[in-house]
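Exam prep: given the inputs below (a chain plus S-adenosylmethionine), describe the expected output before reading on.
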Amino acid sequence: MRNRFHSLCPYFAMFPETFAEAWIKRLTRRGDWVLDPFSGRGTTPLSALLLERRAIASDINDVAYCITKAKTNAPSLRTLMARIDELEASFDARHWAAAARALPEFFGVAFSGRTLQQLMYLRQKLEWRTKKSDGMFAGLVLGALHGDVASGGYLSNQMPRTISTKPAYSLRYWAKHKQAPPDRDVFDIVRQWAAYRYKSALPVGQSHIMQIDVRKLSNIEVTIPKNLRCVVTSPPYFDTTDFEEDQWLRRWFLGAGNEPKSDQRNSDDRHRREDRYWRFIADTWRSLGSVLAKGANVVVRIGGRRLRPDRIRSALAGAACFSGRKVELVSWDVSKLKNRQTRSFRPNSDGIGVEIDCHFHLV
Ligand SMILES: C[S@@+](CC[C@H](N)C(=O)[O-])C[C@H]1O[C@@H](n2cnc3c(N)ncnc32)[C@H](O)[C@@H]1O
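Solution:
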């Protein structure tokens, strides 16, 4: 059975676990460390733990950080259920009604009154950055926050599960289709998802999960192990998506503002100019060069709009000189997977043009 923590919460431009697993098995042994500096939904670190390796992961986005941390630092089901009961017992709807009404119109059509009040309460109460059980609670809410009404497992009015649609578009869509929000109890929905996910074995093992810019990898307080020799990662694709904006509602739940925003926390999500994009990739190589041991392998899935595969390969390989190390391109391939990373997400989109996989060796 596929480990059910993998699908805790979708993430735009995520790669399948088969990709991470195949490379981790091929390039590492039990106990080795594996790094993903653009961890997204946390597939590389979770796969590493499930394969009895150790994981280091970071990402600049708070949604990515929350779900990666939840998957790799899961509390026991018993502890989680006790925390859900405890928070439910101290919820008092009367304290949240006025604050819920004061939110922008979007929220009152996206969620029923009761659901919204519970979400606002949890948004304030959950200590998701510091408490294991709250981290998993928040991860489960993020996974259930929006999706298909008919499935019964999501909290919102009709929305895609993958990205948060913008307020004006959503309001037009709900009005046109005469759709009202379902009345869901957040605590019950989270209990249901928890029971489903915990049918899989809990991932255990050592991991360091951080929320940082890739450029800061070498100045962090967690000591990067000296024998770090494997990276399996996927940077933001060229001119493809803005992770901050596309995850705005999930970011709201984690404490961000009431409107979609881009470039607030990060301006590397969607580079539209090639020179700036490759400079960012060069910075990434510089960071990797400073933390990786001799003989390390770096596997990169990368793509973009308006770029040809050989152009991506040569620019990525060319930028490797900024690592300050001797880097060999061992192999590269145009991704053959049927469901390309970016295709399956944005409704009605063809996704990006090109996606390639490159394997590098640092001598
Ligand atoms: C293609 S996605 C990674 C998807 C991931 N492989 C998965 O399966 O979910 C790229 C990630 O890079 C992150 N990112 C963008 N700029 C960054 C930066 N400067 N430092 C660290 N992470 C960054 C984004 O937040 C996004 O999660």
